[in-house]
């Protein structure tokens, strides 16, 4: 079965712009989580969605937001981009039960802010 | 608090065993994971262990868990050049009643002939 698909793979934006990233989870998975990976901070949890509801959130400013659709696809939006937002953004899908977080990751979207 | 630590670099000779170590802080973690990341790629789940186990073996991979010391290790037997990658240890941490993954900084494994 198809894995987690993230689009686009690469993106270049300028400071102050906004960006939307997309993630299609594995079929049947209802949980989608987003992570930011940077050389300095490593992998940091952004938020998790399950059945169109955000049920977990990391320590990121309000410029970072997301949503999930009824087909479990998720989008992440970053507004007023800053240079420090340049990172690899990874999405993970899981079946979503609270005690089982066997998460499968997509290849990520590499965002460069110039 | 939530924190996962691992050594940053490991170099081994091809054919030898590799052991990557990790310590974590959240004693309520239910699952502990090892992920592999190759250059330009996302994270690949290698294996995971439930917190009430102390060992899990999967082909060349052996995971050891010392829950008392909050220490997790990944042993790769007969290490090959294709095993060169960054290996991330992660724990599932309860937050607001649901799980999220807390990752270590990653251990870069270099395999040389």
Describe this structure in words.
The complex is a heterodimer of chains A (114) and B (113). Chain A has 114 residues and is mainly beta. Helices cover 0% and strands 53% of the residues of chain A. In chain A, strands 2, 4, 5, 6, 9, 10 and 11 form a seven-stranded mixed sheet that branches. The model of chain A has no long low-confidence stretch (mean pLDDT 91). With 113 residues, chain B is an all-beta fold. Chain B has no helices and eleven strands. In chain B, strands 2, 4, 5, 9, 10 and 11 form a six-stranded mixed sheet that branches. A five-stranded antiparallel sheet of chain B has the order 1-3-8-7-6, with no helix packed on it. Chain B is globular, with a radius of gyration of 14 Å. The mean pLDDT of chain B is 90. Chains A and B meet through strand 5 and strand 10 of A and strand 4, strand 5, strand 9 and strand 10 of B.
What key attributes describe this structure?
heterodimer; A: 114 residues; mainly beta; four-stranded antiparallel sheet; 53% strand; B: 113 residues; five-stranded antiparallel sheet; 11 strands; 0% helix
């Amino acid at each position: 079965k198809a894995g987690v698909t993230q689009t686009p793979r690469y993106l270049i934006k300028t400071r102050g712009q906004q960006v939307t990233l997309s993630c299609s989870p594995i079929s049947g998975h209802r949980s989608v989580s987003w992570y930011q990976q940077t050389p300095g901070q490593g992998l940091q949890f952004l938020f998790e969605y399950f059945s169109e509801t955000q049920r977990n959130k990391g320590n990121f400013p309000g410029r970072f937001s997301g949503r999930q659709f009824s087909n479990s696809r998720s989008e992440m939006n970053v507004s007023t981009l800053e240079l420090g937002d340049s990172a690899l953004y990874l999405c993970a899908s899981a079946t979503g039960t609270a005690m089982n977080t066997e998460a499968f990751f997509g290849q990520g979207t590499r965002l460069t802010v110039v | 608090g939530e924190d996962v630590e691992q050594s940053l670099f490991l170099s081994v000779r091809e054919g030898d065993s590799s052991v990557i170590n990790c310590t974590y802080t959240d004693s309520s973690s239910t699952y502990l994971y090892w992920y592999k990341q190759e250059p330009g790629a996302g994270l690949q789940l290698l294996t995971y262990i439930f917190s009430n186990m102390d060992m899990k073996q999967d082909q060349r991979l052996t995971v050891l868990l010392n829950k008392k010391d909050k220490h997790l290790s990944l042993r790769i037997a007969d290490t090959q050049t294709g095993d060169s990658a960054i290996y991330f240890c992660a724990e599932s941490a309860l937050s607001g009643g649901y799980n999220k993954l807390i990752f270590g900084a990653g251990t870069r494994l270099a395999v040389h002939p």
